[in-house]
């Protein structure tokens, strides 16, 4: 059965971009004749996955798809001259390459002539030596021939220097032109794919074809932009899309999904986990071994990976859609696609955790009013003074609270000092460790700034997991008294600071351990 020689255009109309691949949908109207026929559609990206190719006729005259396959052709690029409709940059590149080849051939000819003249001068000098040794004397002829050889050598040497200088200039210009070509234009693909479709139609007429397949070399990640203007925060949700599938996506319906089709859905098989109880030795009964360790307060989530992080969707597949058709060139670069935007009231505070950092940070808290889950990703922070930096937004469900830090404030300074004393009682041999933390806060306000600001200071005290170790906060020795202490041992103060003001915050806590406790 012959195949139609002229391919029918099969543009991309919808794309579902996954975490590491894309599902591409194409639509075309076919003008069929009665009977069985084979059509050639495309071109399509050569990286399309053959086993995922699916074709169906959705409307029109009764017809059936008998076969659909992707056929790839290899057309290596050759040194062909540019066509009339090519760009001026490509014509300039061809002219430079032609002139460079001609100058290289001219340089080689000049070098050969100089070598020949050098051998001629050597022969003349040898002839002069032999003639002078045998009694011959022709000074006028020898002088004339040597002067002629030297004149020819000087002339061709000057031409060779000019040719080498021109070659260096051509090489520099050719390098710049090739770099401009790489940025402005794309070379035609060597491997091109087409879809061969075999259909059987009962009658002649137009039908609508819908064809879909998976393709690699496409991915997306969420990105955000937060603008804080007074007490109003605007959060813009975007998608960074990369694709190098061999073709451009022009005015397509873009859907973004966190589905991971490459992961297996079969749950792991349970393995035997046997627990064994053993009696403690007398030495273990007499002592309690404890240790101080750091515990990070966090929630469960995907394990971090090296390189480009995956999409954190909270364990449930999320689907986002672009509100308008978008175009994504197939150049492998990042393209920003707007998804949603909302503005809401935000509460701000000046927060400081001196044990972690001496900086005072402005923190904004607000609720997620976007109507969809905010996936984990980078966020560009903008406030009144302009771009403030880049932070990270954690996964947030719809309506859940969000917390963003908008950089440090340079007009605050915090200095932290700690003191520790250890004492042992005489009768019970209990160990008492007293730790005193002093925080010195100061504010350097700008001229004309007379507003008072409140800094929320957070310190921590240890939390004991065993009854043999007790931890007590000495509120009477604290100055001022803490505003709150949560179950994680985080102590809060709201410290007001006027312009140019200074305050000192003191925290005192005791750790009491019985005599059989070791490891402190």
Secondary-structure map:
Blueprint: E1 12-17, E2 22-32, E3 35-44, E4 54-60, E5 63-74, H1 88-133, H2 139-184, E6 191-201, E7 205-215, E8 218-229, E9 232-243, E10 249-257, H3 282-286, E11 288-289, E12 319-321, E13 326-328, E14 335-345, E15 347-352, E16 361-367, E17 377-383, E18 386-393, E19 401-408, E20 412-424, E21 431-443, E22 453-460, E23 469-473, E24 484-485, E25 490-497, E26 502-513, E27 517-518
Parallel strand pairs: 1-10, 8-17, 11-27, 15-22
Antiparallel strand pairs: 1-2, 2-7, 3-6, 4-7, 5-6, 8-9, 9-14, 10-12, 10-13, 15-16, 16-19, 17-18, 20-21, 21-26, 22-25, 23-26, 24-25
Helix pairs in contact: 1-2
Summarize the structure.
The protein is α+β, with helices and mostly antiparallel strands and 520 residues long. The protein has three helices and 27 strands. The chain folds into four domains: 12-75 and 190-215; 89-184, Helix Hairpins, CATH 1.10.287; 220-261 and 312-408, no CATH class; 412-518, no CATH class.
């Amino acid at each position: 059965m012959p195949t139609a020689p002229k391919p029918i255009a099969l543009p991309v109309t919808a794309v579902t971009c996954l975490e590491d691949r894309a599902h591409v949908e194409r639509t075309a109207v076919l003008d069929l004749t009665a009977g069985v026929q084979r059509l050639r559609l495309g071109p399509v990206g050569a990286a399309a996955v053959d086993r995922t190719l699916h074709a169906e006729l959705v409307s029109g005259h009764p017809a059936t798809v008998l076969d659909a396959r992707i056929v790839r052709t290899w057309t290596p690029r050759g040194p062909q001259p540019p066509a009339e409709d090519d760009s001026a940059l490509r014509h300039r590149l061809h002219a430079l390459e032609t002139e460079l080849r001609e100058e290289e051939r001219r340089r080689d000819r000049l070098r050969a002539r100089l070598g020949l003249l050098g051998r001629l001068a050597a022969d003349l000098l040898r002839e002069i030596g032999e003639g002078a040794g045998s009694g011959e004397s022709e000074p006028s002829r020898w002088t004339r021939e040597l002067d002629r050889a030297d004149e020819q050598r000087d002339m061709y040497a000057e031409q060779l220097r000019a040719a080498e200088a021109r070659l260096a200039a051509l090489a520099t210009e050719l390098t710049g032109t090739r770099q401009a070509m790489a940025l402005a234009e794309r070379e035609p693909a060597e491997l091109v794919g087409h879809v061969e479709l075999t259909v059987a139609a009962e009658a002649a007429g137009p039908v609508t074809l819908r064809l879909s397949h998976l393709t690699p070399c496409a991915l997306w990640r969420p990105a955000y932009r937060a603008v804080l203007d007074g007490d109003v925060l605007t959060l813009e949700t975007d998608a960074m899309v990369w694709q190098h599938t061999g073709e451009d996506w022009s005015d397509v319906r873009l859907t973004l999904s966190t589905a991971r089709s490459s992961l297996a859905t079969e749950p792991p098989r349970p393995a035997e986990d046997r627990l064994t109880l053993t009696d403690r030795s007398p030495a273990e009964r007499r002592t309690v071994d404890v240790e101080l360790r750091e515990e990070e307060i966090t929630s469960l989530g995907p394990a971090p990976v090296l390189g480009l992080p995956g999409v954190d969707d909270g364990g449930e597949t999320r689907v986002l859609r672009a509100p308008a058709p978008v175009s994504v060139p197939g150049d492998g670069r990042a393209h920003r696609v707007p998804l949603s935007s909302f503005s809401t009231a935000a509460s701000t505070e000046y927060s400081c955790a001196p044990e972690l950092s001496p900086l005072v940070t402005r923190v904004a808290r607000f609720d997620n009013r976007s109507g969809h889950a905010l996936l984990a990703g980078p966020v560009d922070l903008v406030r009144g003074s302009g771009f403030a930096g880049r932070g990270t937004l954690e996964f947030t469900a719809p309506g859940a609270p969000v917390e963003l830090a908008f950089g440090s404030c340079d007009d605050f300074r915090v200095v932290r000092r700690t003191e520790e004393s250890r004492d042992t009682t005489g009768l019970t041999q209990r160990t008492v460790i007293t730790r005193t933390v002093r925080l010195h806060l100061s504010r350097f306000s700008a001229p004309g700034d007379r507003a008072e600001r409140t800094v929320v200071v957070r310190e921590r005290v240890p939390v004991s997991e065993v009854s043999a170790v007790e931890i007590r906060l000495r509120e009477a020795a604290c100055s001022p008294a803490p505003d709150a202490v949560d179950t994680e041992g985080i102590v809060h103060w709201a410290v007001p600071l006027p312009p140019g003001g200074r305050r000192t915050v003191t925290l005192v806590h005791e750790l009491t351990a019985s005599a059989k406790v070791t490891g402190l």
